[in-house]
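Ticket closed. Logging final result for GOLD domain-containing protein.
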Amino acid sequence: MRSLFYGVVVLLFIVIADVQSIMFELQPSAKKCIKEEIQAQVLITGEYQVSEAPGQRVDYVVKDSKGHILSQKEDIPHDRNLKFSFVTENYDTLEICFTSHLPAHQRGMKQDILLITKHGIEAKNYEALGEAAKLKPIEVELKRLEDLSESIVQDFSRMRQREEEMRDTNEQTNSRVLYFSIFSMCCLLGLATWQIFYLRRFFRAKKLIE
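Final structure:
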């Protein structure tokens, strides 16, 4: 019971803190990508900012594992907070890439990239939803808690499904290992029997045994 409580607390913390912020350096004429696994039908929002570097251009693109472009912008303005948002269709691995472009005759410099991504309930603007639906603050908070509860239930359902898949995989692996072990033992017994008869014939031919 205590382990279940701890699991709920950890999962609740993960759902609430479902915000990722990262800052890295992008070398001139280089490309850097970040990958993340996302569930299906999830709202993804993000903000990014690129430091200034005269003469250099930075593009960004978000793709899924099949190469479909979900969000894209070329020649990102420097030192400006830009945003993107989209909804995923299937469970997939997203790839966010930033690419630096530099003229051949120019000496480049490193640029700082700030990327903040949110997904799930953290990506929703509940204040705007409350204003649009003319909800009271307590109603907005109840709506957020309802979405949070639904997200936790969905996460538990996915965890149970993954556990069942892992159990099926382990059972199939154990069965295959058992059959392979039996096959290997049969091969060894057959080889040992053949060696015994071969050696008996060899020693009889050499008249070492009768």
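Strands lie at 19-26, 31-38, 43-50, 57-63, 69-73, 82-87, 92-101, 111-119. No further action required.
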